[in-house]
Amino acid sequence: MIRVLYFASLRERLSCSDETLEAVPATVTDLRAQLAGRGGIWHEVFADGQRVLAAVNQEMAGAGQALQDGDEVGFFPPVTGG
Amino acid sequence: MIRVLYFASLRERLSCSDETLEAVPATVTDLRAQLAGRGGIWHEVFADGQRVLAAVNQEMAGAGQALQDGDEVGFFPPVTGG
Amino acid sequence: MNVEIRVQDTPLDAVAEIAPVYAGQASIGGVVSFIGLMRDMNQGDAVSTMKLEHYPGMTEKALAAIVDEAASRWDLAGVRLVHRVGEIRPQDPIVLVCVASAHRGEAFRACEFIIDYLKTRAPFWKREQTAEGKTRWVDSRGSDEAAAAAWEDSK
Amino acid sequence: MNVEIRVQDTPLDAVAEIAPVYAGQASIGGVVSFIGLMRDMNQGDAVSTMKLEHYPGMTEKALAAIVDEAASRWDLAGVRLVHRVGEIRPQDPIVLVCVASAHRGEAFRACEFIIDYLKTRAPFWKREQTAEGKTRWVDSRGSDEAAAAAWEDSK
Question: By the 8 A CB rule, do D81 and D67 touch?
């Protein structure tokens, strides 16, 4: 099981703030592909994922980072604070 | 006539805060030489003038800067504010 | 090193955050502060309000990591980093970065490093409302990416 | 550009000098401040008090020239520069430099430039009294000369 969170414009575009996935993808890359496979806006957001950043357990993650049961994955656009 | 002012450690070493000179030296270099010519502590301070800065009319001056009647010349050590 | 990091949804009194960073510490010679303020214009449009969203939990970790990285690069006596979230208006302070050090050069470097990294690595997002009532997410800026990347090169 | 330059023999409330530089100006996005404080140690000796002397008349001209030079190099919205003279004690603020700009990079550059130039070009001199009662003029530092010279090279 993993928790997946969506923030800012991603949350709005996907109409989803968070969800729980029973199966654990091997990597963040696999998770992106699985989400893109939902089609529609999900495909639009995740098929060309370069402007969607990912964090695993609240730390910035590279695309290929491995996932484990219980992980929290956050997806979000480039940050604009400060 | 020129006014000559001495600041900080220079004022203390020379036991002089300011004076008026009737004759106007042609340049700051000439004024330094004239002051060094007084001998004693004056020679010590001005004969090797590299650590004595000069301002003419309250602006930093190069050694060779020309002087005119009515000028104010300030001599002081390297600054240490801020 | 004395560190305080806060994320708050209440108004940020930026100036009041500075003195506590150096008060009572006579070994501190230089204090450099950055205050980031909301402007009333962005990309040519008048902006009336802004909402700052963040990723609770990750935000605090990201800010702490940035401050730790600064402390590993420079000799610092104190750091305070406070960031607003929630609804803000033009002229409201968004962020305060204050760095105290024995020497001014280290304080300048560390303060600019922290704000440059925060701009590209801390999970905050701005959504602004223009004077005409349109709502839009603020785009990230290439100049911010470049500023952060320059610190990588200088590591 | 909104400029205020002061030399004062009364205590400097450094933090109180910052907000007026950006208050009421919604085009300002970044404010960088430097506060220089008296330390209780210098060259290995405990220091109890310090007296700051200056060259009245020249000081004001020199500070104005430094701020003018900064304004010619960067796009600034406001600058405030306040320097203490007279008797001070450890932890007392000596100088406040505050620079406001639309963009933070220019504010950082200008603020550091002003303090670096002030340290080598403005006619202030410090005489300190050590804890053992010895009085001595503070020596100028090569690191300050180097910092100012680096701006010449980057001109």
Answer: yes
Q: Which CATH number is C84's domain given? A: 3.90.1170.40
Instruction: Name which of B73, B60, B75 is nearest B24 in CA terms.
Output: B73
Range of the domain at B52: 2-76
Could you tell me if residue D155 is inside a domain? no
Asked if the structure places residue D85 within a domain, the reply is yes
* Domain extent at residue C122: 2-149
**What is the per-residue DSSP string for chain B?**
-EEEEE-HHHHHHHT-SEEEESS--SBHHHHHHHHHTT-HHHHHHHTTGGG-EEEETTEEE-TT-B--TT-EEEEEPPP---
Rounded CA-CA distance D77/D97 in Å is: 14
Query: Does residue C155 fall inside a structural domain?
Result: no
The whole-angstrom distance between D4's CA and the closest CA on chain C is 18
Q: Which of C16, C34, C37 sits opposite D28 (nearest CB)?
A: C37
Number of domains in chain A: 1
Contact in structure between C119 and C144 (CB atoms under 8 Å): yes
- Kindly give the pairing relationship between strand C93-101 and strand D78-84: unpaired
Mean pLDDT, rounded, for A38-67: 91
Nearest to C119 among A59, A60, A81 (CB): A81
Q: Is residue C154 part of a domain?
A: no
Q: What is the CATH number of the domain that holds A38?
A: 3.10.20.30
CB contact under 8 A, D122 and B81: yes
- The total domain count for chain C is 1
In this structure, chain D runs to a length of 155
Rounded to two decimals, the ipTM of the complex is 0.95
With an 8 Å Cβ cutoff, are C26 and D90 in contact?
yes
Per-residue pLDDT of chain C (155 residues; tens, 9 = 90+): 899 999 999 999 999 999 999 999 999 999 999 999 999 999 899 999 999 999 999 999 999 999 999 999 999 999 999 999 999 999 999 999 999 999 999 999 999 999 999 999 999 999 999 999 999 999 999 999 999 999 988 87
Residue with tokens 């590299």: B50
